[in-house]
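User: Sequence in, structure out. Go.
Assistant: Echoing your sequence, followed by the structure tokens.
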Amino acid sequence: MLRQLRYFQSVVRNNSFSEAAEECHISQSAISQQIQALERDLGFQLLERKNRKFTLTPAGEHFYKKSLILVADYERICSESAKIARGSEAVLRIGCLRGYSSGEFQRALEEFAEKYPDVELETKHGNHEELYHLLRTEGADLVLNDQRRAFSDEYVNLVLAAADSYIEISARSPLAELPSVTPQDLKNTPCILVASPSQQETEQEYYHDIVGFHGDFLFAENLEEARLMIISGKGFMPVEGVGMSQGFGTSIRRLPLYRGDEQIRRNYCAFWKKDNSGYYIEEFADMLKAQYAQ
């Protein structure tokens, strides 16, 4: 009956016997016979046929909706049982920067999950050093990270984008009227960083010593908290991510960050250990690369 259920669902989904037959790789007469056999087994009519067209009967409409749930449950049971039989399951562990605000990472996750529904995805977030530690200790298979050190031959170092740097600041701040800002312009405005308590000192050192922010530093646990602080006028936040995508309305302005006459640029890369390279890792890396190329 399972096969007949799939045929019936295909007919309803396509609203056509001929298209359903093509989708199921059988003849139109065969799929029609299978639907009729299903109706005989059930003891009631699923479809009301009129010439070359059909409509669902009230019983058929109810049966169709419930059959979708039944087949989905069956497929899930089969998948779970297969994992038990194998004694293990495929897992891909992906790390991303804690304050990353662009959409490439999320879109790559969605694409991978759709293509490989049987592979469990574990996502982890951290600052640069936390992600590097996860990769080094095999707590993650691949990480999306910024480049702060020289590339190592121990890893695959896939450069995804050389991104222009920006800051986010309250639209009510006088600085928001500037076409761009420099670290010197921001010396009297607190810098808000998204960092876990254990990484606050490390992140502060990087943005003070390397980027050149010399004012006070404030910290948020996540991106949402940081943006609430920005809206409240407590400071500015350096942007982690690529491009000018915005999802925060008109209360926050995003400004280019310059040093001298040139906009500061940062490399964003996918890193994974060469001795841990596998099909799923490289497949996800390709998807991530394609997202950045769009």
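User: And one key feature?
Assistant: The mean pLDDT is 89.
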